[in-house]
Amino acid sequence: MLNRFDKLIYHNISLRLLLIVPFIVQIALTVSLVGYLSFKNGQKTVNDLANQIMDKTGRLVSQHLNNYLDVPKRLNQMNADAVETGILNLQNLEQSGKYFWKQMYLHENLGYNGYILPTGKGAGSGNYSQKKLKTLEIFPIVNKGVSKIYSYATDAQGNKTKLLNVYDYPGLAQPWYTQTAKAGKPIWSGVHPWSGAFGSESIAASANYPIYNKNGQLMAIFGVDLLLTNISNFLEQIHISKNGTIFIIERNGLLVANSGLEKPYLLVNKQVERLSAINSPNPLIGATAKYLQQQIPDLQTIQQTQQLEFDFQGHQQFVKIMPWKDSLGLDWLVVLAVPESDFITQIQSNTYNTILSCVITLLAASFVGIYISNWITKPILQLSQASQAIAAGKLDHSVDVKGINELEILGQSFNHMAKQLQESFSALARANSDLEQTNIELEARVEARTSELQATIQQLHQTQTQMVQSEKMSALGQMVAGVAHEINNPVNFIHGNVVHAEEYTQYLLELIHLYQQYLPEPPQEIADQLAAIEFEFLEKDLVKVFQSMQIGTKRIQEIVVSLRNFSRLDESEVKAVDIHEGIDSTLVILNNRLKAKSDREGIKVIKNYGKLPLIDCYAGQLNQVFMNLLNNAIDALEERDSERTVEQIKIQPSTITISTSVENGWLRISIADNGTGITEEVGSNIFNPFFTTKPVGKGTGLGLSISYQIVTQKHYGKLSYHSTLGEGTEFIVELPIHK
């Protein structure tokens, strides 16, 4: 078929056309590829440039957030240190309020700075930026958890000059206080609207810090409201691109700051309300937030920087989302949106110029290619005609090519080749006669050698298969020993510590009972928790759990011992071993095949063990024999049960009987099943290598052959069997007892 295709393509095509067309096609493909790569490179340049700008901007924003939001944390730590060193006496409310007023004077971006005691008393200072007013606020009176706050105007030194306002403030019930007291450590209590007196409006984040005395009792909680307006001002100063925007949102989608002129909040009835990014008056922010919600409905899942693209008003937008967190719990997303059109105009112009240059190059190269092809084809056609003459048997034909050095050399070589061909034909005729006789002799020698190799390969195959089977069993022993060792250490550790865990649990339960004795009516939160966890049931069930754990770890230890015994497969020297121990270990390995399955009943194992002495033997190899014999018995029973009904199996269940005894100086092991038995035809070949009655893929025919060699050659014993059709089969291993 390929030859037909070649003839169809090249039949009656001139050499000139064959040279010109591929040359032009090659140039066209090259120029097209260059234009395409130029276009793709322009797109990649846009993407890379946008990524670089957004990465740099993101790092700049993150650095500003780190610095800006670190101020209240440092102030709280400084105030806690002042209390600890005695510089600040929180019980002196007026002096403390003046102390916080001075801090407010140094930090214009704070909305409020103060503290509250567990009694509800406290002091602080407020910053009302629209009036450029910093107040001194003292709340010395508390009535039923509600503090009475006195707000004063101050002079340049922070001294009270005028009482501005008196209002009630339930400070002990405020979320910032309760959340901090519950956390017991410095936290942010979240972003919230800031609608202060005198027309102040903004949003703020509260950084709170609890301090405790040496007895661990709460002394006070510091609170700093940091105004977030400066963040939007900072973002507005960043020039990410001509039409790009930056905004910061919480994980719930509410705006924290943005780079546009629009405020990140609403003013409703002179009260500040938080604004969702989707509802932002800035069209690009709203569209970006809406697309982000469609792609990632749960913003909590964004844990790493992500980059998206979407279409907005016919223009492609690059979007980068960068998580930002701090140590006290703030968890925001910094979102940058940049239109592709801000970067692509100049790059597209360069791409069009490149493509135009490629087209001009294609036309020029095509013209030059046609001229050169005509110049080359003329002498080549002469050589073609000469080669046809030689093919017709005219070996004395010669050519005269001029014009191109390489073709002149080719013509000379062509003439020399024609002369050599004439001489070679004569030499080949003589050589063919000699080769025919040599081939006859070689064929005879090859046939004889092939017969020898086939016999050797057959013998090697048999030996290799036996070695592979032995290596498999040795590898199984090594694996089992390793598994048993790796399991044993953690199980012993768990088993040893269960007793201590149970003892420690009893101590804890006794402690709880003691608490119940001295505190019969616990607080409601503790009572709810006791009911939620069902403490009385948990107390009773815990004892059963520890008992189950002890029984389970004990069972694992027993299985590990059996695995260790079976892992003697890799032992090469003769040792005195307990035969019963090897049989039991093998049964543990085969337990999964013996137990009942969803589609059949289990196989019952009956042990009639006699009193046996320790016997010198290769323990691992004998374990291999037991494994082969027990596997064959299980296979026979499974095959018989697959053809019986459930009722038949219940009437006559499958059993394997293992008996051991010592008779006349021989140790005798019997493994019998009540399967279908073995026919005489099968029995006559049962110990032959590669003989098997099992389907392809389920047996190699080496199990009994290798077992026979292990028993008779390695241990100088006997391996025999007795079988009755319809009743079962018994294999008998007899080993001499050496005293």
Automatic annotation (TrEMBL):
Species this protein is from: Richelia sinica FACHB-800
Reactions this protein catalyses: ATP + protein L-histidine = ADP + protein N-phospho-L-histidine
Enzyme class: transferase
Any one GO molecular function term: ATP binding
Pfam families: dCache_1, HAMP, HATPase_c
Name of this protein: histidine kinase
UniProt EC number: 2.7.13.3
Keyword presence, Transmembrane: yes
Coiled coil location: 418-452
Keywords noted in UniProt: ATP-binding, Cell membrane, Coiled coil, Kinase, Membrane, Nucleotide-binding, Phosphoprotein, Transferase, Transmembrane, Transmembrane helix, Two-component regulatory system
Bilayer disposition of the protein: Multi-pass membrane protein
Record field: transmembrane: 17-39, 352-372
Domain of life of the organism encoding this protein: Bacteria
GO cellular component labels: plasma membrane
InterPro entries in the cross-refs: dCache_1, HAMP_dom, HATPase_C_sf, HATPase_dom, His_kinase_dom, HisK_dim/P_dom, HisK_dim/P_sf, Sig_transdc_His_kin-like_C
